[in-house]
């Protein structure tokens, strides 16, 4: 019975198991199961989010996000945050509301739906149709702002996670993958069709255009998980609909292939939609000190950074996002490759900068007081929206002419934590 007291863990043992390293190229595309879109509302220290990113046809970028934050024994805090940005109309609205009476799985609905006094998100299923799944979002964020949105997933563009089965999508932290100290998981709809409206100060404006949805959970303190994040969201209506999405975290030094001090591992997942079809899912791990190998590419590269005196971080003037993976289109073999470069200017002359979000200024007071690591971090999220061109190459059946230049819009984020 006392053996556990004398069980030593090798301090140089691997204590990170990235989802991007656990699956063969042919197994990267994992279909979503019913529970993958359901709220878990875990306790302990966990942050769970559902985010809808819409790039409307009129140039508006609309983000609607629900954040469920648990801190130890404290009662969870739930926020609804919203960003409305349109450079053509000089619109930049940010709203963050602590909601009351949150319920995951309202009466008559399962946990893919949720509601509170301030919003409702209702999941609907219509199997066999052109749009077999949808969410209806309704939010009253004050007397001056209401949102109503219907987002529908096309049948030919399924939701995905990296890897099949219940462990698909999970990156595990700690030396024992069967008993992890924490985890991160992402599930995506890479492209949806959105219709609805925004009411600001009593004036309604229509919203219509493509977008993407992500359900993510950080089952661990966020400062322990990552030192930085990158996110790319490209959408275009060309060729019947295209998208390129990517999510990348870079771990703290505490988690890596050789234990504490070997971290700074980049874990990147993404996907490509070309011609209205999901054509590939990408996933790549970059271990410090090792060169990348193989045909699979999923990476974000910061170029020409400059110092931002406001935040203390080195901010890139360009970010290169790259994808490469085997086609998952039935009857089509070969690699599908793509890249897009975000030209975001420098600190003094930014291009398409929406906001530099001071995360500590936005999180609830109770969380700020309880989480004693706050003093050692200063997280900022940089958000940009710019026109961009996605360069694609691949098999003729996926990429007519074997190469394409697709014009669209790119929303991207760079998050710096420490």
UniProtKB/TrEMBL annotation:
<feature type="domain" description="Svf1-like N-terminal">
    <location>
        <begin position="47"/>
        <end position="218"/>
    </location>
</feature>
<comment type="similarity">
    <text>Belongs to the SVF1 family.</text>
</comment>
<keyword id="KW-0963">Cytoplasm</keyword>
<dbReference type="Pfam" id="PF08622">
    <property type="entry name" value="Svf1"/>
</dbReference>
<dbReference type="InterPro" id="IPR013931">
    <property type="entry name" value="Svf1-like_N"/>
</dbReference>
<dbReference type="InterPro" id="IPR033394">
    <property type="entry name" value="Svf1-like_C"/>
</dbReference>
<dbReference type="GO" id="GO:0005737">
    <property type="term" value="C:cytoplasm"/>
</dbReference>
<dbReference type="Pfam" id="PF17187">
    <property type="entry name" value="Svf1_C"/>
</dbReference>
<feature type="domain" description="Svf1-like C-terminal">
    <location>
        <begin position="220"/>
        <end position="418"/>
    </location>
</feature>
<protein>
    <submittedName>
        <fullName>Putative cell survival pathways protein</fullName>
    </submittedName>
</protein>
<dbReference type="GO" id="GO:0006979">
    <property type="term" value="P:response to oxidative stress"/>
</dbReference>
<dbReference type="InterPro" id="IPR051385">
    <property type="entry name" value="Ceramide-binding_SVF1"/>
</dbReference>
């Amino acid at each position: 019975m006392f053996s556990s007291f004398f069980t030593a863990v090798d301090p140089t043992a691997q204590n990170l198991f990235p989802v991007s390293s656990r699956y063969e190229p042919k197994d990267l595309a994992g279909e979503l199961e019913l529970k993958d879109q359901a709220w878990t509302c875990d306790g302990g220290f966990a942050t769970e989010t559902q985010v809808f990113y819409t790039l409307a046809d009129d140039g508006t970028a609309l983000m609607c996000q629900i954040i469920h934050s648990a801190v130890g024994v404290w009662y969870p805090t739930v926020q609804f945050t919203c960003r409305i940005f349109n450079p053509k109309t000089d619109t930049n609205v940010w709203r963050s509301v602590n909601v009351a009476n949150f319920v995951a799985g309202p009466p008559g609905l399962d946990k893919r739906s949720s509601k509170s006094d301030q919003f409702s998100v209702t999941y609907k299923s219509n199997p066999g149709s052109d749009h077999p799944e949808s969410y209806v979002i309704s939010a009253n964020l004050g007397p001056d702002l209401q949102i109503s949105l219907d987002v529908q997933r096309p049948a030919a563009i399924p939701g995905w996670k990296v890897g099949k089965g219940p462990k698909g999508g999970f990156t595990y932290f700690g030396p024992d993958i069967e008993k992890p100290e924490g985890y991160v998981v992402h599930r995506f709809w890479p492209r949806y069709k959105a219709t609805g409206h925004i009411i600001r100060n009593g004036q309604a404006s229509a919203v219509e255009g493509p977008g993407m949805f992500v359900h993510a959970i950080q089952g661990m303190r966020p400062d322990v998980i990552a030192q930085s994040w990158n996110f790319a969201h490209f959408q275009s209506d060309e060729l019947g609909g295209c998208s390129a999405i990517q999510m990348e975290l870079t771990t703290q030094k505490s988690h890596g292939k050789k234990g504490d001090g070997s971290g700074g591992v980049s874990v990147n997942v993404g996907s490509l939609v070309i011609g209205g079809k999901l054509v590939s899912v990408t996933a790549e791990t970059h271990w410090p000190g090792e060169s990348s190998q193989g045909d699979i590419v999923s990476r974000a590269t910061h170029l020409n950074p400059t110092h931002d005196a406001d935040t203390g971080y080195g901010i890139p003037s360009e970010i290169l996002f790259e994808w490469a993976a085997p086609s998952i289109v039935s009857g089509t073999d070969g690699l599908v490759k793509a890249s897009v470069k975000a030209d975001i200017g420098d600190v003094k002359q930014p291009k398409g900068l929406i906001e530099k979000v001071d995360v500590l200024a936005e999180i609830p007071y109770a969380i700020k007081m309880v989480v004693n690591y706050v003093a050692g971090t200063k997280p900022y999220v940089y958000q940009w929206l710019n026109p961009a061109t996605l360069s694609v190459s691949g098999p003729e059946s996926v990429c007519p002419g074997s190469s394409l230049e697709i014009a669209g819009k790119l929303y991207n984020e760079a998050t710096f934590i420490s």
